[in-house]
Amino acid sequence: MNTSTSSCSPRRWPLAAALGLVALGLALTACGPQSQTPGKPRIALIMKSLANEFFLTMENGARAHQKAHADEYDLLANGIKDELDVAKQVELVEQMVAQKVDAIVIAPADSKALIGVCKKAQDAGVVVVNIDNKFDDAVLAGQKIKLPFVGPDNRKGARRVGDYLAKQLKPGDKVAVIEGPPNAFNGQQRGLGFDDAMNAAGMKIVSSQSGYWETDKANQVAAAIITENPDLKAFLCANDSMALGAVAALRAAGKLDQVKVVGYDNISAVQTLLKEGKILATADQHADQIAVFGIEYALQLLKTKTAPADRETPVDLITAESLAGK
User: Fold this and answer.
1) What is the dotted CATH code of the domain comprising 37-151+287-314?
2) Which terminus of the chain faces fewer neighbouring Cβ atoms within 10 Å, N or C?
3) Do 109 and 184 meet the contact criterion of CB atoms below 8 Å apart?
């Protein structure tokens, strides 16, 4: 959704005046967010579901940055309702190109399907910066397009979470991975990071299934895994929303104190559970800053016209100890 809003109140005009305004209107932009300060770049931020606290935090961080730099750029923030609504994201990119924004900073719902429309945006002269979920390198190469990725190394971050979990287990313990969508590069990388840690520690991965980023779906997946593996020792969840679903399934099964859970994203909803020991660890990739990093890079590219390159952003391990006193 485009969260920038404006209103034009209808008025009654004499016929001659109305005809004159119609002619004048052909040369003017309709009232709304298109009315901008001349020469000031407009940056469109296109995210995934704003129902996910991670992306709401991302949006709030971007808005705070724009407010502090209001003389430097204008911001149009958009999001989809469903994490997997790729078609809506394509439509949002097309809308932003039609509105002639200067740059698009996008956290794509699909690592491959959004590349085509982003290429069209780039061909139209729009600077495109990829954040959060990296575009597929093979598809980028096939379409002969370069889009810079500004974001964390998800595999590295998940490996740190998995290594921390492994210290609480013993070799041979059974664990399960609840993955992100198979079409999301960051989900794939987090799954690989978890696998790296578990394999290095000698754990037995008994199941690896997608919860599609959603709490309810992860809850269903976790409940089935618990039933099939009564001696399960841990869930490794590729985001915190799915970790919440695993916790709910364990609580329903009466095993909340027997099975450890780790997540990824450090949303506020898991921090109490971290302090209580219901979730062991998560990763903080600084949701409030990821879009800001992308926006700042887009502004730099608009000024310098230099060739874009990837930029890695920080990701930190979060545990009850790191939250102590907060």
Assistant:
1) 3.40.50.2300
2) C
3) yes
